[in-house]
Queue: 2 jobs
Job 1
Amino acid sequence: MDNKSYQDHYFRKAKSQGYRSRSAFKLIELNQKFKFLKNGIKLLDVGSFPGGWCQVVVKIVKNGKILGIDKKKITKIKGVNLIKGDFLEENSKKNIIKFFNNKINVILSDMAPNTTGNKSLDAIKTNELCLSILEFSNEMLDKNGVVISKLFMGDDFEEIKVYAKKTFKKIDFFKPNSSRDNSRETYIHCNRLNT
Ligand SMILES: C[S@@+](CC[C@H](N)C(=O)[O-])C[C@H]1O[C@@H](n2cnc3c(N)ncnc32)[C@H](O)[C@@H]1O
């Protein structure tokens, strides 16, 4: 599928199913593969605007405690608590910790920086965000918890792999079909902390 057909296909699919973003299908595929969305979990979704992933989460997870955070304001989603803030700021992290008041079972991040058009620079910035999620997870994730984060195959990909291997018992990489073939985007799935 060429880029335009890809965009049209997932745009129509998202619209017909009531999702705010095409990204929703990436989370659906990730969950089909790794099965981390379960009833009663505490779940953090970072970089959640416009809210497609949160919509998928509330459809599947019953009686969960769900928090979404993004720099941009997200329109309300029933069953999801939303914070507008920059995840990299200490104050946002404090707000997240205060909200859960306990360890988190699932941490998701689809964070992406504003693209510059320079593929290497975009990859570096995305991977910095990924590393910050893994570091935060090291502190705040339940020892049997799961982290999923977007990353880009780039020069600093190895650094993430080394950190993830050191921090988690099991790591995998997965590129959903709904992620464009020509994009270097992929997702890391990390399972259970090395305590
Ligand atoms: C690809 S979009 C997420 C789409 C979302 N998963 C969905 O399904 O609707 C990436 C988001 O990451 C957010 N983002 C980037 N850097 C961030 C940061 N430091 N803190 C919070 N959000 C951030 C952007 O504002 C953008 O809305």
Job 2
Amino acid sequence: MAKNQNQFSDGNSQNQLYVPQPTARPDGFNDFSHLHIPDVEQSDRPAIDCSPHDMRDLAYGLIRVLDDDGKAKGNWNCGVEPQILLQGLKDMLLTRMFDERMQTMHRVGKISFYMKCTGEEAISVAHTAAINFEDMVFPSYRNQGILLARGYNLVDMMCQCLSNARDNCKGRQLPIMYSWKKGNFFSISGNLATQFSQAVGWAMAEAQQGGNRLATTFVGDGSTAELDFHSALNFAATYSPPVILNITNNQWAISSNQVIAGGEKTTFAARGIGFGLPSLRVDGNDFLAVYAATKWAAERARAGLGATLIEYFTYRVAPHSTSDDPSAYRPKNEEDLWPLGDPIERLKTHLINLNEWSEDQHNILIEKIKIKLKKSYKEAESYGTLKTGDRPDVTTMFEDVYEDMPLNLRRQRQEMGL
Ligand SMILES: Cc1ncc(C[n+]2csc(CCOP(=O)(O)OP(=O)(O)O)c2C)c(N)n1
Ligand SMILES: [Mg+2]
């Protein structure tokens, strides 16, 4: 390899350390023209029992259904009923507006932290539409769209972020680290990628017990560098449990570009090939493509054919969290140049083309969601905010982990005089 600006050495040895760099830094310009975006009609749709070896190209291409004019085309166009698409549009819009509302609540000091998923709404929402409510989700922290698409109570979601008296996590979790048992949504873990092995283990148990539910789990591009990700793939390939392993490649892991997690020389979907897993790379901003790929993986899992790895190619439009400032590490407005567009706008255009939707209906929906969010927030705030209201009782911090409290915890509680 020729020496270039990414290579570092102490000057005395032959060896050089290569450190990949993002395409552009804040003082530069990135229009993503280096990306290869294949035509919508280019990807084959294999049978669900296709051997992973015979479908390797799908890990390097990009499954797309919606073209630039909002028309559905190609082998992955599975003719989804308009009702499902309309519900998807509503859920994506609710997700985006929920995020905006909560971000504002952070700015005025009502919550301590927030994470938006702007630009990534189709991944959570279309995926949820393509599986069953009974299927078990092991999420990342950027999958609030799954909760909203499954109909989780808005007030409960807000109370978790407010860490108030109605917070079902009793103030023990960071805001946005939701948990919804009845919604088959496993508690979000702050330790990146642990959910991958948990999902595979859960799916192995489900298979062993002869159940027909599947597990689905999400990690980010950066989190694929964690060992849990690789051990999960190994177990998933070995035991063929009913699990969908999803990677959201939104190009960034806080300030580290996806090249630092190994995305420069291959795709994240291609990680599956070495393990013998069927692997798909999908346009994450295309609701219909996410839906079709998920359906394919779910059918495969339910037919007893095992796990599928899916990479969703997208862009993290918002900062990593309310603690982050992307202007320190990426060009301003890079998100506007993302070549795969905005998932909400793309589905909206498609539905307008089908005469199933209109600009007027869209604007009315926005107003309705605004009112619903305002009303829900008012109610949530009545249970307290970061600065006001009741907190869960301090004694509760010893509860809920063990059925019978072990001696060490009982002693600690006594030390507190309780
Ligand atoms: C094991 C572990 N290492 C590091 C962190 C700190 N951390 C939290 S989020 C994050 C970035 C993850 O990026 P990515 O996986 O791409 O997901 P995204 O935020 O883009 O959705 C890091 C490094 C953590 N929470 N857990
Ligand atoms: Mg990321």
